[in-house]
Specification:
With 332 residues, the chain is an alpha+beta fold. Helix content is 42%, strand content 10%. It has 15 helices and nine strands. The longest helix is centred in the C-terminal third of the chain and has 31 residues.
Length: 332
């Protein structure tokens, strides 16, 4: 069973049916202490905004064949692909390592997506497209359902870039102007001037707690970010931090050197607490709440793994198994 975090006494909670129907993850909220829930509802919610109010969160472009549309430097040279058909892009979360909060530190790949009709393209581009047709790339589903097959749709420069898989919810400012693939999430700010403030607001234990409350996990307990769930997370409003953007360099340096836990601790002490007027005990309550939910998530995944190893699930029973592992609470 994975009903309550280890060491927690059993308790009964009354949950509102309308909140369950509306999609709120009230079963998870019920695992938090009453003082923390009160703090979140009465002081933090009025002083924060949902990410979706601040930015449009979407997946990046879908190339259709990652290897073909992101040719290596050797392939670019061999075919003589034209500069006009290439643009710098992020096609993997691995490219974000060591970048801090800025994509200008990333080593980008090249996205091949030529404009214009085939006859107007350079000879090298046409030769590469012929190779794509001969090797079956043009027949792949995403390619054969667009016209022309080689032009990648939805290529835009986002303001923010989010890794999809993360135990700590990172965000980068896209100051490098890179295109971003669907291996990552893109954020298009409603006010681009909020970018630095958003990055400051994001890196704190409040965001870690919000991620545990809003973002689902895969079978192994790994959190996976999707646009709708990220949009539901609450963060400090960037405009409340408009005069603090010089502090971004401190946060940036910590993240660039890989000191992620230290960076989030710094965000708690220098951004979250002073902006909301929280005491050390209140910040610790938020941090502890995130740890409680993370422990429950991992325990639930472990319990599911043990069950599946003992008894193979019949076809169609995976959803039933997941529901069986939900925390049991009473509600009207």
């Amino acid at each position: 069973e994975a009903d309550l975090p280890a060491g927690e006494p059993a308790r009964a909670e009354t949950l509102r049916l309308d909140e369950i129907v509306a999609g709120r993850r009230v079963f998870l909220e019920a695992l938090l202490s009453a003082p923390l829930r009160e703090l979140l509802a009465e002081r933090i919610a009025p002083a924060t905004a949902q990410v979706g109010e601040l930015a449009d969160v979407r997946i990046g472009y879908v190339a259709g064949d990652k290897r073909f549309f992101h040719p290596s430097a050797e392939t670019v040279a061999r075919y003589g692909l034209s500069a006009g058909s290439l643009r710098p892009a992020l096609a993997s979360g691995r490219r974000l390592r060591g970048a801090g909060v800025r994509t200008s530190r990333c080593e980008p790949e090249q996205l091949f997506s030529p404009e214009g009709d085939l006859r107007s393209l350079a000879a090298g581009d046409r030769a590469y497209l012929a190779h794509g047709e001969a090797s079956g790339v043009s027949a792949r589903f995403k390619c054969r359902t667009r016209e022309p097959w080689y032009r990648v749709p939805g290529v835009r420069v986002a303001d923010l870039v989010f890794p999809v898989f993360a135990e700590r919810p990172l965000v980068l400012l896209n100051d490098g102007g890179l295109a971003v693939s669907n291996s990552l999430l893109c954020g298009y700010l409603r006010r681009p001037a909020d970018a630095a403030g958003f990055a400051l607001a994001w890196h704190s234990s409040l965001t870690v707690l919000q991620m545990e409350l809003c973002v689902h996990s895969l079978g192994g307990g790994v959190l996976v970010l999707v646009p709708r769930e990220v949009a539901a997370m609450r963060v400090l409003h960037p405009r409340r931090l408009a005069r603090r953007t010089e502090a971004l360099s401190t946060l940036d340096g910590m993240l660039a050197e890989g000191s992620i836990e230290r960076a989030f601790g710094w965000g708690d002490a220098h951004v979250l607490a002073p902006t909301l007027g929280l005491s050390e005990a209140e910040v610790a309550m938020i941090r502890d709440g995130a740890q409680v939910l993370a422990g429950w998530r991992r325990g639930r995944a472990h319990a599911a793994g043990q069950r599946s190893s003992r008894t193979p699930l019949a076809e169609g029973s995976a959803a039933d198994a997941g529901r069986a592992l939900e925390p049991r609470r009473t509600h009207p």
